[in-house]
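pinned: reference chain
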Amino acid sequence: MRPILSALLVTSLLLTACGGEPAAAPTAIPAPTQVPATATSAASPTPEATATPASLSTEQLVDKLRPSTVLIRAAFGATAISTEGLGEGTGIVYDTKNGYVLTNAHVVEGASSIKIRTDGSTAMRAARLLGIAPCDDLAVLKVDSTDGLVAAKLGDASVAKVGAEIVTLGYPISLGTDSALSVNTGTISKLKVQNPPYQDLIQINAVLAPGNSGGPLVNRKGEVIGVNSLGFSLQGQGGVSYYSISMAYAKPIIKDLEQSKNRHFTGMNLVPNGDTYKDYFGTDQGVVIVGVASGSPASKLGIEQADLLLKMEGQNITDAAGICDIMESHADTDPLKVTILRANTGDVYEGELNGTAPLKFLTNIKTSSSPPTATAAGSNSGSSGNSGSNNGNVKVLLDNDFEDGSPGPWGTADKDSFFAGVKDGSYDLTIHIESDTITAYPDEASVENLTDGGIIAAVKADGDGAAGLMARYTHPDGQDSSYYACWIDRTKQFGCYKQVNGKSSDLIKTAKSDAIIADDFNKVSLIVIGSEISLAINDQDVASVKDTDLPNGWWGAMAETGKGETEFTSHYDRILIVAPNK
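pinned: its C-alpha coordinates
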Protein backbone atom coordinates (compact mmCIF):
# COMPACT_ATOMS: atom_id res chain seq x y z
CA MET A 1 0.00 0.00 0.00
CA ARG A 2 1.31 3.44 -0.87
CA PRO A 3 1.76 6.03 1.87
CA ILE A 4 -1.06 8.54 2.25
CA LEU A 5 0.35 11.97 3.00
CA SER A 6 -2.73 14.21 3.08
CA ALA A 7 -3.58 15.96 6.33
CA LEU A 8 -6.99 17.08 7.60
CA LEU A 9 -9.75 16.62 5.03
CA VAL A 10 -13.34 17.80 4.68
CA THR A 11 -16.60 16.10 3.77
CA SER A 12 -16.87 17.61 0.29
CA LEU A 13 -13.17 17.40 -0.50
CA LEU A 14 -10.44 14.78 -0.56
CA LEU A 15 -6.84 15.80 -1.07
CA THR A 16 -5.38 13.23 -3.48
CA ALA A 17 -3.42 10.41 -1.85
CA CYS A 18 0.17 10.07 -2.87
CA GLY A 19 0.19 8.39 -6.22
CA GLY A 20 -3.19 6.77 -5.47
CA GLU A 21 -6.02 6.16 -7.93
CA PRO A 22 -8.50 9.06 -8.37
CA ALA A 23 -11.37 8.83 -5.90
CA ALA A 24 -15.02 8.93 -6.86
CA ALA A 25 -16.67 12.30 -6.49
CA PRO A 26 -15.93 14.29 -4.45
CA THR A 27 -12.48 14.29 -5.99
CA ALA A 28 -9.65 16.47 -4.76
CA ILE A 29 -6.40 17.58 -6.25
CA PRO A 30 -3.63 18.42 -5.92
CA ALA A 31 -1.63 16.68 -3.22
CA PRO A 32 1.71 14.95 -2.74
CA THR A 33 2.52 11.78 -4.63
CA GLN A 34 4.83 8.86 -4.00
CA VAL A 35 8.08 9.05 -5.94
CA PRO A 36 11.35 7.10 -5.79
CA ALA A 37 14.25 8.51 -3.79
CA THR A 38 16.93 10.30 -5.82
CA ALA A 39 20.60 11.04 -5.40
CA THR A 40 21.69 14.62 -4.69
CA SER A 41 24.45 16.76 -6.13
CA ALA A 42 25.89 20.22 -5.64
CA ALA A 43 23.50 23.18 -5.86
CA SER A 44 23.62 25.54 -8.83
CA PRO A 45 22.80 29.18 -8.00
CA THR A 46 19.95 30.98 -9.74
CA PRO A 47 20.30 34.69 -10.59
CA GLU A 48 18.16 37.30 -8.86
CA ALA A 49 15.04 38.57 -10.63
CA THR A 50 15.26 41.80 -12.60
CA ALA A 51 13.26 45.01 -12.11
CA THR A 52 9.50 44.60 -12.33
CA PRO A 53 7.23 46.63 -14.65
CA ALA A 54 3.60 47.31 -13.69
CA SER A 55 2.37 44.26 -15.63
CA LEU A 56 4.45 41.28 -16.62
CA SER A 57 4.06 38.81 -19.42
CA THR A 58 3.73 35.14 -18.53
CA GLU A 59 7.34 34.54 -19.60
CA GLN A 60 8.53 37.37 -17.35
CA LEU A 61 6.48 36.08 -14.43
CA VAL A 62 8.00 32.62 -14.79
CA ASP A 63 11.54 34.04 -14.90
CA LYS A 64 10.79 36.12 -11.82
CA LEU A 65 9.19 33.34 -9.75
CA ARG A 66 11.33 30.40 -10.88
CA PRO A 67 14.02 30.85 -8.16
CA SER A 68 11.24 31.38 -5.57
CA THR A 69 9.20 28.26 -6.39
CA VAL A 70 10.74 25.04 -5.05
CA LEU A 71 9.97 21.36 -5.25
CA ILE A 72 9.38 19.76 -1.83
CA ARG A 73 10.05 16.08 -1.19
CA ALA A 74 8.99 14.68 2.17
CA ALA A 75 9.91 11.21 3.43
CA PHE A 76 7.36 9.18 5.38
CA GLY A 77 8.00 6.02 7.37
CA ALA A 78 6.16 2.75 6.96
CA THR A 79 3.10 1.94 9.11
CA ALA A 80 0.68 -0.96 9.41
CA ILE A 81 -1.37 0.66 6.65
CA SER A 82 1.28 2.12 4.36
CA THR A 83 4.74 1.43 3.05
CA GLU A 84 7.73 3.72 3.33
CA GLY A 85 7.79 6.36 0.59
CA LEU A 86 8.17 9.95 -0.52
CA GLY A 87 5.61 12.69 -1.10
CA GLU A 88 5.91 15.67 -3.43
CA GLY A 89 4.56 19.18 -3.26
CA THR A 90 5.56 22.78 -3.99
CA GLY A 91 6.85 25.59 -1.79
CA ILE A 92 7.23 29.38 -1.97
CA VAL A 93 10.49 31.02 -0.84
CA TYR A 94 9.44 34.36 0.66
CA ASP A 95 12.30 35.31 3.03
CA THR A 96 15.87 34.47 2.05
CA LYS A 97 17.40 36.23 5.07
CA ASN A 98 15.78 33.71 7.40
CA GLY A 99 15.40 30.89 4.87
CA TYR A 100 11.59 30.72 5.15
CA VAL A 101 9.53 28.62 2.74
CA LEU A 102 5.72 28.54 2.71
CA THR A 103 3.72 25.45 1.71
CA ASN A 104 0.59 23.46 2.54
CA ALA A 105 0.43 21.57 5.82
CA HIS A 106 -0.74 18.42 4.06
CA VAL A 107 2.49 18.32 2.03
CA VAL A 108 4.77 17.94 5.06
CA GLU A 109 2.71 16.95 8.11
CA GLY A 110 4.07 13.80 9.73
CA ALA A 111 7.18 13.67 7.51
CA SER A 112 10.36 12.16 8.92
CA SER A 113 12.53 14.36 6.69
CA ILE A 114 11.97 17.21 4.23
CA LYS A 115 14.12 18.41 1.32
CA ILE A 116 13.70 21.08 -1.37
CA ARG A 117 15.26 21.94 -4.71
CA THR A 118 14.91 24.63 -7.34
CA ASP A 119 13.86 24.11 -10.93
CA GLY A 120 16.60 22.69 -13.13
CA SER A 121 18.73 21.52 -10.19
CA THR A 122 19.19 18.02 -8.84
CA ALA A 123 20.68 19.25 -5.56
CA MET A 124 18.32 18.68 -2.62
CA ARG A 125 18.58 21.06 0.37
CA ALA A 126 17.57 19.97 3.85
CA ALA A 127 14.58 21.79 5.35
CA ARG A 128 12.91 21.58 8.73
CA LEU A 129 9.37 22.26 9.80
CA LEU A 130 9.20 25.52 11.73
CA GLY A 131 5.46 25.77 12.35
CA ILE A 132 2.26 24.16 11.10
CA ALA A 133 -1.46 24.96 11.05
CA PRO A 134 -3.33 21.84 9.86
CA CYS A 135 -6.82 23.39 9.94
CA ASP A 136 -5.56 26.27 7.81
CA ASP A 137 -3.48 23.90 5.63
CA LEU A 138 -0.39 26.10 5.99
CA ALA A 139 3.17 25.34 7.08
CA VAL A 140 6.45 27.27 7.22
CA LEU A 141 9.77 25.52 6.59
CA LYS A 142 13.29 26.79 7.22
CA VAL A 143 16.33 26.09 5.04
CA ASP A 144 19.87 27.02 6.03
CA SER A 145 21.22 27.02 2.47
CA THR A 146 19.65 29.91 0.54
CA ASP A 147 22.20 30.31 -2.29
CA GLY A 148 20.41 30.94 -5.57
CA LEU A 149 17.02 31.43 -3.92
CA VAL A 150 15.06 34.62 -4.42
CA ALA A 151 12.31 35.81 -2.09
CA ALA A 152 8.89 36.16 -3.69
CA LYS A 153 6.79 39.13 -2.66
CA LEU A 154 3.67 38.23 -0.70
CA GLY A 155 0.98 40.48 -2.13
CA ASP A 156 -2.34 41.84 -0.95
CA ALA A 157 -5.16 39.51 -1.98
CA SER A 158 -7.74 41.86 -0.45
CA VAL A 159 -7.51 44.13 -3.51
CA ALA A 160 -7.79 41.27 -6.03
CA LYS A 161 -10.83 41.34 -8.30
CA VAL A 162 -12.93 38.72 -10.02
CA GLY A 163 -11.80 38.39 -13.63
CA ALA A 164 -8.21 39.45 -12.93
CA GLU A 165 -5.54 37.45 -14.73
CA ILE A 166 -3.44 35.05 -12.66
CA VAL A 167 -0.62 32.54 -13.10
CA THR A 168 -0.03 29.36 -11.08
CA LEU A 169 3.34 27.66 -10.69
CA GLY A 170 4.19 24.26 -9.28
CA TYR A 171 5.76 20.85 -9.76
CA PRO A 172 3.38 18.20 -11.12
CA ILE A 173 3.89 14.69 -9.86
CA SER A 174 6.70 12.73 -11.47
CA LEU A 175 7.56 9.08 -11.17
CA GLY A 176 11.11 9.86 -12.24
CA THR A 177 13.74 12.35 -11.16
CA ASP A 178 12.93 15.15 -13.63
CA SER A 179 10.06 17.02 -11.95
CA ALA A 180 10.08 20.36 -13.73
CA LEU A 181 8.29 23.60 -12.97
CA SER A 182 4.94 23.91 -14.75
CA VAL A 183 2.86 27.00 -15.39
CA ASN A 184 -0.87 27.55 -15.95
CA THR A 185 -2.72 30.78 -16.65
CA GLY A 186 -6.28 31.81 -16.00
CA THR A 187 -8.46 34.27 -14.15
CA ILE A 188 -10.03 34.69 -10.73
CA SER A 189 -13.52 33.17 -10.72
CA LYS A 190 -14.61 33.97 -7.17
CA LEU A 191 -13.24 35.51 -3.98
CA LYS A 192 -13.74 34.76 -0.28
CA VAL A 193 -14.98 31.22 -0.81
CA GLN A 194 -15.53 29.16 2.36
CA ASN A 195 -15.31 25.39 2.31
CA PRO A 196 -14.72 24.21 5.91
CA PRO A 197 -12.16 23.97 7.32
CA TYR A 198 -10.87 26.46 4.69
CA GLN A 199 -12.01 29.97 5.61
CA ASP A 200 -10.88 32.23 2.73
CA LEU A 201 -10.26 30.69 -0.68
CA ILE A 202 -9.73 32.17 -4.13
CA GLN A 203 -11.46 30.17 -6.86
CA ILE A 204 -9.56 30.14 -10.15
CA ASN A 205 -10.09 28.59 -13.57
CA ALA A 206 -6.44 27.64 -14.01
CA VAL A 207 -5.83 23.93 -13.58
CA LEU A 208 -3.90 22.74 -10.51
CA ALA A 209 -2.21 19.40 -11.09
CA PRO A 210 -1.40 16.91 -8.32
CA GLY A 211 1.92 18.03 -6.85
CA ASN A 212 1.11 21.77 -7.24
CA SER A 213 -0.02 21.95 -3.60
CA GLY A 214 1.78 24.76 -1.79
CA GLY A 215 2.78 26.64 -4.95
CA PRO A 216 2.17 30.33 -5.66
CA LEU A 217 -0.89 31.98 -7.17
CA VAL A 218 0.56 35.12 -8.78
CA ASN A 219 -0.98 38.32 -10.12
CA ARG A 220 0.39 40.12 -13.18
CA LYS A 221 2.65 42.22 -10.96
CA GLY A 222 4.48 39.10 -9.86
CA GLU A 223 3.02 39.20 -6.34
CA VAL A 224 1.94 36.02 -4.58
CA ILE A 225 -1.74 36.47 -3.66
CA GLY A 226 -2.54 32.86 -2.77
CA VAL A 227 -1.21 29.40 -1.89
CA ASN A 228 -2.43 26.79 -4.36
CA SER A 229 -4.12 24.10 -2.33
CA LEU A 230 -6.91 22.00 -3.74
CA GLY A 231 -9.48 21.09 -6.28
CA PHE A 232 -12.82 19.43 -5.69
CA SER A 233 -16.04 18.58 -7.47
CA LEU A 234 -19.50 18.52 -5.99
CA GLN A 235 -21.24 15.21 -6.44
CA GLY A 236 -23.67 15.25 -9.36
CA GLN A 237 -22.45 18.59 -10.72
CA GLY A 238 -19.42 17.43 -12.69
CA GLY A 239 -16.24 19.36 -13.36
CA VAL A 240 -13.50 20.33 -10.94
CA SER A 241 -13.02 23.73 -9.31
CA TYR A 242 -9.56 24.85 -8.19
CA TYR A 243 -8.70 26.96 -5.15
CA SER A 244 -5.87 28.83 -3.47
CA ILE A 245 -5.70 30.01 0.12
CA SER A 246 -5.94 33.80 0.12
CA MET A 247 -2.76 35.58 1.19
CA ALA A 248 -4.93 38.08 3.06
CA TYR A 249 -5.98 35.20 5.33
CA ALA A 250 -2.58 33.48 5.38
CA LYS A 251 -0.29 36.38 6.32
CA PRO A 252 -1.10 36.67 10.06
CA ILE A 253 -0.95 32.88 10.37
CA ILE A 254 2.46 32.83 8.70
CA LYS A 255 3.80 35.24 11.33
CA ASP A 256 2.77 32.82 14.08
CA LEU A 257 4.31 29.87 12.29
CA GLU A 258 7.61 31.70 11.88
CA GLN A 259 7.73 31.85 15.68
CA SER A 260 6.99 28.08 15.90
CA LYS A 261 3.52 28.85 17.23
CA ASN A 262 1.56 25.92 15.84
CA ARG A 263 -2.18 26.42 15.35
CA HIS A 264 -4.77 23.73 16.03
CA PHE A 265 -1.96 21.19 16.07
CA THR A 266 -2.38 17.66 17.41
CA GLY A 267 0.49 15.99 15.55
CA MET A 268 -1.87 13.55 13.83
CA ASN A 269 -1.73 13.27 10.04
CA LEU A 270 -5.28 12.24 9.20
CA VAL A 271 -7.09 10.87 6.15
CA PRO A 272 -10.68 9.65 5.68
CA ASN A 273 -11.53 6.08 6.59
CA GLY A 274 -12.82 4.99 3.19
CA ASP A 275 -12.63 1.87 1.06
CA THR A 276 -8.83 1.76 1.41
CA TYR A 277 -8.91 1.22 5.17
CA LYS A 278 -12.33 0.11 6.40
CA ASP A 279 -11.59 -3.59 6.03
CA TYR A 280 -8.40 -3.19 8.08
CA PHE A 281 -10.19 -1.37 10.90
CA GLY A 282 -13.41 -3.39 10.68
CA THR A 283 -15.48 -0.19 10.52
CA ASP A 284 -16.05 2.82 8.26
CA GLN A 285 -16.23 5.15 11.27
CA GLY A 286 -13.58 7.68 12.30
CA VAL A 287 -10.54 9.08 10.52
CA VAL A 288 -7.26 7.24 9.98
CA ILE A 289 -4.07 8.38 11.70
CA VAL A 290 -1.39 7.77 9.05
CA GLY A 291 1.34 9.64 10.90
CA VAL A 292 2.20 11.03 14.34
CA ALA A 293 4.75 13.83 14.78
CA SER A 294 7.45 13.25 17.38
CA GLY A 295 6.98 15.34 20.52
CA SER A 296 3.44 16.36 19.50
CA PRO A 297 0.40 16.19 21.81
CA ALA A 298 -0.68 12.98 20.09
CA SER A 299 2.76 11.41 20.49
CA LYS A 300 2.94 12.36 24.17
CA LEU A 301 -0.47 10.81 24.79
CA GLY A 302 0.64 7.52 23.26
CA ILE A 303 -1.31 7.63 19.99
CA GLU A 304 0.39 5.63 17.24
CA GLN A 305 0.48 5.51 13.46
CA ALA A 306 -2.30 3.32 12.05
CA ASP A 307 -4.64 4.10 14.98
CA LEU A 308 -8.20 5.21 14.17
CA LEU A 309 -9.54 8.44 15.70
CA LEU A 310 -13.18 7.79 16.63
CA LYS A 311 -14.17 10.71 18.85
CA MET A 312 -13.02 14.12 20.01
CA GLU A 313 -14.68 15.85 22.95
CA GLY A 314 -17.41 13.20 22.82
CA GLN A 315 -18.31 13.85 19.18
CA ASN A 316 -18.03 11.19 16.50
CA ILE A 317 -15.35 12.23 13.99
CA THR A 318 -15.77 11.57 10.27
CA ASP A 319 -13.83 14.39 8.60
CA ALA A 320 -11.54 17.37 9.08
CA ALA A 321 -14.31 19.90 9.34
CA GLY A 322 -15.56 18.29 12.55
CA ILE A 323 -12.08 18.22 14.07
CA CYS A 324 -11.36 21.82 13.18
CA ASP A 325 -14.73 23.02 14.47
CA ILE A 326 -13.83 21.54 17.86
CA MET A 327 -10.25 22.79 17.91
CA GLU A 328 -11.18 26.30 16.82
CA SER A 329 -13.52 26.46 19.81
CA HIS A 330 -10.61 25.79 22.19
CA ALA A 331 -7.26 27.35 22.94
CA ASP A 332 -4.31 25.48 21.44
CA THR A 333 -3.24 24.23 24.88
CA ASP A 334 -6.68 23.13 26.11
CA PRO A 335 -7.04 19.42 26.98
CA LEU A 336 -9.14 17.61 24.35
CA LYS A 337 -10.65 14.20 25.08
CA VAL A 338 -10.15 11.67 22.28
CA THR A 339 -11.18 8.05 21.70
CA ILE A 340 -9.02 5.88 19.44
CA LEU A 341 -9.08 2.32 18.13
CA ARG A 342 -5.85 0.32 17.85
CA ALA A 343 -6.77 -2.10 15.08
CA ASN A 344 -3.94 -4.60 15.49
CA THR A 345 -5.18 -5.47 19.00
CA GLY A 346 -8.81 -4.33 18.81
CA ASP A 347 -8.34 -2.18 21.89
CA VAL A 348 -10.20 1.11 22.32
CA TYR A 349 -8.54 3.81 24.42
CA GLU A 350 -9.53 7.21 25.78
CA GLY A 351 -7.25 10.06 26.77
CA GLU A 352 -6.67 13.81 26.61
CA LEU A 353 -4.50 15.64 24.11
CA ASN A 354 -2.53 18.29 26.03
CA GLY A 355 -3.45 16.48 29.24
CA THR A 356 -1.28 14.75 31.83
CA ALA A 357 -2.84 11.29 32.02
CA PRO A 358 -1.88 8.49 29.60
CA LEU A 359 -4.34 6.60 27.41
CA LYS A 360 -6.87 4.58 29.38
CA PHE A 361 -8.13 1.21 28.10
CA LEU A 362 -11.90 1.16 27.53
CA THR A 363 -12.81 -2.02 25.70
CA ASN A 364 -11.74 -4.53 23.06
CA ILE A 365 -13.85 -4.82 19.92
CA LYS A 366 -12.44 -8.26 19.09
CA THR A 367 -13.77 -9.76 22.30
CA SER A 368 -16.79 -7.49 22.72
CA SER A 369 -20.18 -8.39 21.33
CA SER A 370 -20.67 -4.77 20.25
CA PRO A 371 -19.98 -3.80 16.63
CA PRO A 372 -16.84 -1.68 16.11
CA THR A 373 -18.55 1.67 15.51
CA ALA A 374 -17.60 5.01 16.98
CA THR A 375 -20.68 4.96 19.19
CA ALA A 376 -20.05 1.49 20.54
CA ALA A 377 -16.34 2.05 20.98
CA GLY A 378 -16.84 4.92 23.36
CA SER A 379 -18.87 2.89 25.83
CA ASN A 380 -18.75 -0.61 27.25
CA SER A 381 -21.41 -2.97 25.99
CA GLY A 382 -22.13 -5.16 28.99
CA SER A 383 -23.19 -3.22 32.05
CA SER A 384 -23.67 -5.94 34.62
CA GLY A 385 -22.40 -8.58 32.23
CA ASN A 386 -22.94 -10.75 29.19
CA SER A 387 -21.66 -14.12 28.14
CA GLY A 388 -21.39 -16.53 25.26
CA SER A 389 -20.41 -14.20 22.38
CA ASN A 390 -18.05 -15.41 19.66
CA ASN A 391 -15.49 -13.55 17.61
CA GLY A 392 -13.09 -15.37 15.31
CA ASN A 393 -10.77 -17.64 17.28
CA VAL A 394 -11.89 -16.32 20.68
CA LYS A 395 -15.09 -17.00 22.60
CA VAL A 396 -16.12 -14.51 25.27
CA LEU A 397 -17.45 -16.43 28.24
CA LEU A 398 -18.01 -13.46 30.53
CA ASP A 399 -17.86 -9.68 30.17
CA ASN A 400 -18.57 -7.38 33.14
CA ASP A 401 -17.97 -3.64 33.35
CA PHE A 402 -19.94 -2.89 36.59
CA GLU A 403 -21.08 0.55 35.37
CA ASP A 404 -24.67 -0.07 36.53
CA GLY A 405 -23.49 -0.79 40.08
CA SER A 406 -24.24 -4.49 39.89
CA PRO A 407 -21.50 -7.05 40.60
CA GLY A 408 -23.18 -9.56 38.27
CA PRO A 409 -21.91 -13.06 39.04
CA TRP A 410 -18.93 -11.83 41.07
CA GLY A 411 -18.98 -12.46 44.80
CA THR A 412 -19.62 -9.76 47.39
CA ALA A 413 -18.76 -9.48 51.08
CA ASP A 414 -18.28 -6.79 53.70
CA LYS A 415 -16.21 -8.07 56.62
CA ASP A 416 -14.01 -6.47 59.26
CA SER A 417 -10.90 -7.62 57.41
CA PHE A 418 -11.94 -7.23 53.77
CA PHE A 419 -14.55 -6.00 51.29
CA ALA A 420 -15.62 -7.35 47.90
CA GLY A 421 -18.18 -5.51 45.78
CA VAL A 422 -18.89 -2.64 43.40
CA LYS A 423 -18.04 0.99 44.21
CA ASP A 424 -18.05 3.93 41.79
CA GLY A 425 -18.39 1.73 38.72
CA SER A 426 -15.59 -0.74 39.48
CA TYR A 427 -15.42 -4.10 41.20
CA ASP A 428 -13.20 -3.71 44.28
CA LEU A 429 -11.29 -6.09 46.49
CA THR A 430 -10.24 -4.20 49.63
CA ILE A 431 -8.02 -5.58 52.40
CA HIS A 432 -7.96 -3.86 55.81
CA ILE A 433 -5.20 -5.92 57.41
CA GLU A 434 -1.59 -6.80 56.66
CA SER A 435 -0.31 -10.05 55.14
CA ASP A 436 -3.62 -11.16 53.72
CA THR A 437 -4.86 -12.47 50.36
CA ILE A 438 -8.41 -12.46 49.03
CA THR A 439 -9.62 -14.09 45.81
CA ALA A 440 -12.84 -13.76 43.84
CA TYR A 441 -14.31 -15.63 40.91
CA PRO A 442 -17.70 -15.50 39.14
CA ASP A 443 -20.56 -17.83 39.94
CA GLU A 444 -21.06 -18.72 36.31
CA ALA A 445 -21.29 -22.25 34.91
CA SER A 446 -19.64 -21.31 31.59
CA VAL A 447 -16.31 -20.60 33.31
CA GLU A 448 -16.33 -23.50 35.75
CA ASN A 449 -13.46 -26.01 35.43
CA LEU A 450 -12.00 -24.11 32.46
CA THR A 451 -8.83 -25.69 31.07
CA ASP A 452 -7.55 -23.20 28.47
CA GLY A 453 -8.48 -19.54 28.52
CA GLY A 454 -7.65 -16.08 29.67
CA ILE A 455 -8.77 -13.25 31.88
CA ILE A 456 -8.37 -9.65 30.71
CA ALA A 457 -9.11 -6.70 32.95
CA ALA A 458 -8.49 -3.01 33.55
CA VAL A 459 -6.70 -3.19 36.92
CA LYS A 460 -5.59 -0.48 39.34
CA ALA A 461 -3.54 -0.96 42.51
CA ASP A 462 -4.71 1.59 45.09
CA GLY A 463 -2.34 1.68 48.05
CA ASP A 464 0.49 -0.63 49.10
CA GLY A 465 -0.26 -4.14 47.91
CA ALA A 466 -0.62 -6.34 44.83
CA ALA A 467 -3.59 -6.25 42.43
CA GLY A 468 -3.86 -9.26 40.19
CA LEU A 469 -5.64 -11.93 38.22
CA MET A 470 -5.74 -15.67 38.71
CA ALA A 471 -6.29 -18.77 36.58
CA ARG A 472 -7.26 -22.40 37.18
CA TYR A 473 -8.44 -21.74 40.74
CA THR A 474 -9.70 -24.72 42.74
CA HIS A 475 -10.66 -25.12 46.39
CA PRO A 476 -11.83 -28.69 47.07
CA ASP A 477 -13.67 -29.36 50.31
CA GLY A 478 -11.25 -29.94 53.16
CA GLN A 479 -8.24 -28.75 51.15
CA ASP A 480 -6.42 -25.47 50.69
CA SER A 481 -6.80 -23.54 47.43
CA SER A 482 -4.66 -23.88 44.31
CA TYR A 483 -4.27 -21.35 41.48
CA TYR A 484 -1.92 -19.43 39.19
CA ALA A 485 -1.72 -15.66 39.84
CA CYS A 486 -0.02 -12.64 38.28
CA TRP A 487 -0.07 -9.17 39.82
CA ILE A 488 1.02 -5.52 39.50
CA ASP A 489 1.52 -2.80 42.08
CA ARG A 490 1.65 0.99 42.19
CA THR A 491 5.48 1.02 42.04
CA LYS A 492 5.37 -0.51 38.52
CA GLN A 493 6.40 -3.96 39.76
CA PHE A 494 4.87 -7.24 38.65
CA GLY A 495 5.25 -10.93 39.35
CA CYS A 496 3.60 -14.34 39.02
CA TYR A 497 3.31 -17.27 41.42
CA LYS A 498 1.44 -20.51 41.87
CA GLN A 499 -0.25 -21.85 44.95
CA VAL A 500 -0.70 -25.61 45.23
CA ASN A 501 -2.74 -26.84 48.18
CA GLY A 502 -1.96 -23.66 50.09
CA LYS A 503 1.79 -23.62 49.39
CA SER A 504 3.10 -20.76 47.24
CA SER A 505 6.15 -20.55 44.99
CA ASP A 506 7.32 -18.01 42.43
CA LEU A 507 6.74 -18.60 38.74
CA ILE A 508 8.14 -15.21 37.70
CA LYS A 509 10.14 -13.29 40.26
CA THR A 510 9.28 -9.69 41.10
CA ALA A 511 10.49 -7.25 38.43
CA LYS A 512 9.80 -3.72 37.22
CA SER A 513 8.18 -2.83 33.91
CA ASP A 514 7.75 0.54 32.20
CA ALA A 515 4.62 -0.91 30.62
CA ILE A 516 2.83 -0.36 33.94
CA ILE A 517 1.15 3.01 34.49
CA ALA A 518 1.48 3.97 38.14
CA ASP A 519 -1.68 4.97 40.04
CA ASP A 520 -3.97 4.31 37.08
CA PHE A 521 -5.83 1.49 35.39
CA ASN A 522 -3.72 -0.93 33.37
CA LYS A 523 -4.89 -3.51 30.88
CA VAL A 524 -3.66 -6.83 32.32
CA SER A 525 -4.02 -10.11 30.40
CA LEU A 526 -3.33 -13.51 31.96
CA ILE A 527 -3.54 -16.30 29.38
CA VAL A 528 -3.07 -19.99 30.14
CA ILE A 529 -3.04 -22.45 27.22
CA GLY A 530 -1.85 -25.95 28.01
CA SER A 531 1.33 -25.56 30.06
CA GLU A 532 2.04 -22.02 28.74
CA ILE A 533 1.30 -19.12 31.13
CA SER A 534 1.60 -15.63 29.59
CA LEU A 535 1.29 -12.16 31.10
CA ALA A 536 0.77 -8.96 29.10
CA ILE A 537 0.43 -5.43 30.49
CA ASN A 538 -1.00 -2.68 28.31
CA ASP A 539 -0.46 -4.89 25.25
CA GLN A 540 3.20 -5.54 26.02
CA ASP A 541 4.21 -9.13 26.63
CA VAL A 542 6.18 -8.97 29.87
CA ALA A 543 6.56 -12.59 30.94
CA SER A 544 5.81 -16.20 30.10
CA VAL A 545 6.51 -19.48 31.87
CA LYS A 546 5.55 -23.15 31.63
CA ASP A 547 3.95 -25.21 34.39
CA THR A 548 1.83 -28.38 34.47
CA ASP A 549 0.74 -28.61 38.11
CA LEU A 550 -2.78 -27.19 37.73
CA PRO A 551 -4.96 -28.62 34.94
CA ASN A 552 -8.18 -26.56 35.20
CA GLY A 553 -10.35 -24.39 37.40
CA TRP A 554 -11.88 -20.92 37.70
CA TRP A 555 -10.48 -17.64 36.39
CA GLY A 556 -10.78 -14.68 38.73
CA ALA A 557 -9.28 -11.72 40.61
CA MET A 558 -6.98 -11.47 43.62
CA ALA A 559 -5.59 -8.86 45.98
CA GLU A 560 -2.76 -9.22 48.45
CA THR A 561 -1.06 -7.24 51.20
CA GLY A 562 2.37 -7.85 52.69
CA LYS A 563 3.80 -7.22 56.11
CA GLY A 564 2.99 -3.70 57.27
CA GLU A 565 0.61 -3.12 54.34
CA THR A 566 -3.01 -2.32 55.16
CA GLU A 567 -5.97 -0.55 53.54
CA PHE A 568 -5.25 -1.73 50.03
CA THR A 569 -7.79 -1.89 47.19
CA SER A 570 -7.56 -3.67 43.87
CA HIS A 571 -9.95 -1.97 41.41
CA TYR A 572 -11.33 -3.73 38.31
CA ASP A 573 -12.93 -1.40 35.80
CA ARG A 574 -13.86 -4.25 33.46
CA ILE A 575 -13.25 -8.02 33.45
CA LEU A 576 -13.46 -10.40 30.50
CA ILE A 577 -12.99 -14.16 30.61
CA VAL A 578 -12.30 -15.77 27.24
CA ALA A 579 -11.52 -19.19 25.81
CA PRO A 580 -10.34 -20.57 22.47
CA ASN A 581 -13.25 -20.92 20.05
CA LYS A 582 -12.62 -24.57 19.25
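why pinned: The chain has three domains: 28-258, 268-377, 389-580. The domain at 268-377 is CATH 2.30.42.10 (Pdz3 Domain).
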